Amino acid sequence: MSCRIKEIWAWTVRFFLRSLQRHTSTRYGRAYTQMKPRTRLTFFLPTRQGNLLFHVDNSYHPQRVKYSMLRAVDLPPQGMGGNTEFVDVRQAWDDLPEPWKQELQANGYRVRHSMWHSRKLASPDFFARLDATNYPSSLRNLVQEHPDTGRALLYLASHCFEIEGLSAAESKEKLDFLMSHATQEKRILSLPWLNKGDMMVWDNRCVMHRGQPLAGPYKRDLRRATILDEGPEAYSFDAKDYDYMKFWSAAFHVMQQYDTGVQEAAKKQLGLAGKDVAGLEKAIPTV
Fold it and tell me: Where is the TauD/TfdA-like domain positioned along the sequence (predicted)?
């Protein structure tokens, strides 16, 4: 079975090469590479806590992700947690009270998605000085139809923070209700990682997912590939105005709290080591 998984993985990378999202490991022109083992600085851990909240991959970028694939290379002993969990946002729509359906359809709400919002939601103390509204976000329909089936769904994620045309308080009230509704315990499918070579593949257009923490200081190596969407809802309504440089300037804004060594390590991980980032730092809003 592990050989078959490797074949599928290799085929996917070749077949979808035009749409393969370029992660850190693909930055230098190769579709998939081995990454050198390293110890992450504690600075980066709070930025990863958002993965423990239900989300869809990269809805905050101008072009969203369609499919995600996660493959286990090295795993801790079984029973140590680390499950990946899913909820079906099509079923969440089906089970939504009728008055809510009528309101959402009548108003055609559009929602802003921000990675920095979900990161702050997961690590509020670490990101206390960060205002997500100062940085680029994407604008997407709240109610969508799956392009392959026509089935209605709630396009939600922990990245959601503002409903266009509503106040911050109104937006929060509605989004909190919808997220609570969609992520009820009865809707959660929790899948353990059992064997090296296991792979999970999911459609970000109809499910949210989250990771669960490990119970102990164990090593785990999961590797991901994602396929960009090219369908009718693929792009943010304001995609042409998206400023990637300003988006990443949020990382430097947070790093101002820390010493130079941590800042330089972060630049290296972002692929900016040795580069002049003076212009980037000037783009950081004053708090």
Answer: 47-226
What pTM was computed for the model? 0.76
The helix/strand/coil state of 82 is coil
Smallest CA-to-CA distance from 141 within 236, 54, 243, 238 is with 236
Give the contacts of 281 (CB within 8 A, at least 6 positions apart): 249, 252
In the structure encoding, which two tokens stand for residue 4, read together? 């078959």
Rounded to 5°, angle at Cα 60 from 171 and 236: 90
CA-based nearest residue to 201, from 182, 227, 219, 179 = 227
| Radius of gyration from C-alpha coordinates of the chain | 19
β-pair partners for 81? 214
Query: In this structure, which amino acid lies at residue 137?
Result: S
Place of tokens 């590797």: 223
- Measured between alpha carbons, how far apart are the two ends of the chain, in Å? 53
Kindly tell me the burial class for residue 206, based on how many C-beta atoms sit within 10 Å of its own C-beta (0-12, 13-18, 19 or more): buried
Residues of the chain with pLDDT under 70: 1-48, 251-287
Chain length of the chain: 287
Q: Could you tell me whether strands 84-88 and 110-113 are parallel, antiparallel, or unpaired per DSSP bridges?
A: unpaired
Domain ranges of the chain: 42-242, 243-287
Task: Tokens for 89, please give them.
Answer: 């946002």
Cα 262 to Cα 257: distance, rounded to the nearest angstrom: 10
pLDDT of residue 201: 95
Q: Which residues contact 285 (CB under 8 A, 6 or more apart)?
A: 131, 134, 253
